[in-house]
Amino acid sequence: MSITEIFGSNVFNLTVMKERLPKDVYKAIKKTINNGTALDPEIADVVANAMKDWAIEKGATHFTHWFQPMTGITAEKHDSFIAPTDDGKIIMEFSGKELIMGEPDASSFPSGGLRATFEARGYTTWDPTSYAFIKDSTLCIPTAFCSYSGEVLDKKTPLLRSMEAVSKQALRVLRHFGSDATRVISYVGPEQEYFLTDSELYHQRKDLILTGRTLFGAKPAKGQELEDHYFGVIKERVSSYMKELDEELWKLGVLAKTKHNEVAPAQHELAPIFSTANIASDHNQLTMEIMKKVAERHNLVCLLHAKPFEGINGSGKHNNWSIGTNTGENLLKPGDDPISNKKFLIFLCATIRAVHKYGYQLRLSVATAGNDHRLGANEAPPAIVSMFLGEQLDEVIQAIKAGKTSIDKNEENIETGVDSLPVLKKDATDRNRTSPFAFTGNKFEFRMPGSSQSIAGINIVINAIVADVLSEYADRLDKAEDVDAEIWNIIKDTLNEDEAVIFNGNNYSDEWVKEAEERGLPNLRTTADALPLFKSEESIKLYERLGIFTPIETSSRCDIMLEDYAKALHIEALTMIDMASRDILPACISYAASVAESVASQEAIGLSVSKQKAVAKEISELNEVLIDKTDALRKAMEGVGSDDPVKEAEYYKDNVIPAMEALREVADTLETKVDSEYWPMPTYTDLLFYA
Ligand code: ADP
Ligand code: MG
């Protein structure tokens, strides 16, 4: 099959619908997809039947409501299509009711206290704006998930609400520009980084199996210093993995586009072509799932943790975000003459103001135990949220602030010095890779998210904060007598009030930490510092005002995220204790004994062994420290268990993490001194430079 035939072959998309649905039904669905209007439930039976026939032809036997509970991953419960007949046989059935609504037992999904277990009922409802697809002989229907009393229990529903919010407020602003758009859509293209390692090696590391990252491991002799991996030639085993991954994703209609090696050894990236935030989020979940599954077929394991290896770059997920109208206009496109493009300037300013006013929201949207290891290391943007606009826009901003309404255009070409090469027009934005939130030509790239995160939460926040500023702008414009003048006032006010968030320098530098503090930008270093702000009064009001979360939904979500942080650290600490006491310590003691024995036997025949004695002494002393530090971590763990999720997160941050770090330090030192034959698990060199 050719790629064009493979693409979307397992998706119940508009082409299939057009073929298989009566014209009026097809039209109704298309209208819902394009305009977000409610669907007439009457047509559900017709759609369900067509879906079922199509799925059965494709070999499907089951269907499932595919949803995204607060675990950050997807959930599915499969039901077969079979229905008994009077004569003891079966027919294959799928009704409109089954398509529209499901009732999975919700009691085991996190709800942050929203739903008592005795009221376990949760409902899934069909999201017709994201296509159904077939995976593992099962027809998967993307659905939203809510509780009996209507509280949202998932990540999709609030994402859809946030898309509505930004659309509504953007349209209010656009009205003053005479736009005939009836809908504004948020678009997202998530670049997904990941590591691959050999499956056999992986299975010898309890830490990787249980926590997704290495809790021990000395620095390898070779890391990423040569920078020879980035965009390097892809090794055959990996390239055959990538090829199969692309094909599997294409079948599911995921627009997998770019693949390359990343900076760290064994690190790679996959980027799709952007789509609506809702579909991008569904597809990113699918992508992560398929990445893991395909890896198994190649005896590989795909690591999606944000920081699998200490001292080696972690993996991020660059969230490229923009908004555009249903008339095909990208509202973040500067055009040839940005200073006279007031519409662009308004939407640019709205984003600047949103990032300034609600920087902490962006920070907390990426707050996880895993990502804390990444943010602020010399590889990922720091925990301080700032924004990069690039030279050209900076010039525009300075001009506006100085009261000018035009600037000299100096379009530059890139001189390659070789006449036979085509002349390249210089990109309007230089690429500042250190900025957490960078303007990249016609979109913003948010670089803080960790690689395993669902992108739903991130885009809920971006949509919400931008929508909120747009509503403030719209209120001003609605009241203005001279709209044109007010547009300029809004732009100028924003640049005066919110310029502090713009930073074009090196975000990795220590000077920036100091300067950011002077500028009043928060530096929320850890998840425990950032997350509680989610349930601050300002935050609760923000989401309530925009109709994204009720107050109780915000605070329960905040608690779930705090609990996730504590749970992740709980598992990590226990895994460390287990590995230290049952694997590392026994190996180190055996090694110390064997050195001691060999020293004694050499001494017995009069050989000089003073230096070898020192080796034995050092190892046995380190072993004592290892025991101490393991005990200290055990002790720290005795203090966990507060009922208050904020206090519990703080306790982990202040007591458990330091104890984990101290234990790791001594174990990693031992690794560099103990005979490799004795070391009980594969090392960084083994894992990163597997064959
Ligand atoms: P980089 O050079 O930053 O690695 P790529 O071009 O590989 O970027 O990927 C950028 C991502 O941004 C892709 O997923 C792309 O589809 C997406 N993208 C491009 N334009 C837009 C847009 N207007 N809105 C949202 N995402 C976009
Ligand atoms: Mg990028």
Question: Can you tag this structure with a few keywords?
Answer:
691 residues; alpha+beta; 9-stranded mixed sheet; 7-stranded mixed sheet; 23 helices; 47% helix; binds adenosine-5'-diphosphate; binds magnesium ion
Written description of the protein model:
The protein has 691 residues and is an alpha+beta fold. Helix content is 47%, strand content 14%. It has 23 helices and 21 strands. The strands form four sheets. Strands 10, 11, 12, 13, 14, 15, 17, 20 and 21 form a nine-stranded mixed sheet that branches. The longest helix is centred in the last third of the chain and has 54 residues. It is globular, with a radius of gyration of 28 Å. The mean pLDDT is 92. Adenosine-5'-diphosphate binds next to strand 10, strand 12 and strand 15.
The global form is globular
Bound molecules: adenosine-5'-diphosphate, magnesium ion
Strand content: 5-15%
SS-based class: alpha+beta
Q: Number of DSSP strands? A: 21
Nearest-angstrom radius of gyration?
Answer: 28 Å
Spatial gap, N to C terminus: 31 Å
- Give average pLDDT, whole number: 92
User: Uncertain segments of ≥5 residues (pLDDT<50)?
Assistant: none
Q: Helical proportion? A: 40-55%
Tally the helices.
23
Characterize the largest beta sheet: strand count, sense, and whether it forms a barrel.
9 strands, mixed
